[in-house]
Amino acid sequence: YAASAMATWVTDIQREYESYDPSEYELKLGKKCIYKWPSDLARTSSMSMHRTPHMASLGPYHHGEEHLQPMEHHKKRALYRILKRRRVPLTRFADSLEGIEQELRD
């Protein structure tokens, strides 16, 4: 991101975060879980190959693809929960990302 694009992103996310009310979602949350790759798949060399995401994308390669858009609000909600739990301003996260942006893109 260019500096102005990052500033715009931070402003937009901060505005949404300030109006975020987690109560409705937390009532529906239920059991939490993280799914892992099956061990037989994790051992194959194909794990290192490029994979096309079906539900969510973290990173720039598939950002904006239409079939991934329904997950965007969940990703934002996860960010809001981290910000609330850690009591850290969004700008601190953004500044940290700016410092390693190129490394993440490579």
Biggest sheet details: none
Structural class: mainly alpha
Following the backbone from N to C, one meets helices and strands in this order, namely HHHHH
Strand content: under 5%
DSSP E strands, number? 0
Helix proportion: 40-55%
Runs in which pLDDT lies below 50 for 5 or more consecutive residues are: none
Mean pLDDT: 76
Compute the separation of the termini in Å: 14 Å
Assembly type = single chain
What's the overall geometry? Answer: globular
**Any idea what the radius of gyration is?**
16 Å
Pfam family, one: DUF247
Task: Give me the secondary-structure topology.
Blueprint lengths: L2 H16 L4 H7 L9 H4 L29 H15 L3 H16 L1
Summarize this, please?
InterPro entries: DUF247_pln (IPR004158). The chain is mostly helical.
Structural account:
The protein has 106 residues and is mostly helical. It has five helices and no strands. Helix 1 (3-18) packs across helix 5 (90-105). The mean pLDDT is 76.
Question: Can you give keywords for this protein?
Answer:
single chain; 106 residues; mainly alpha; DUF247_pln
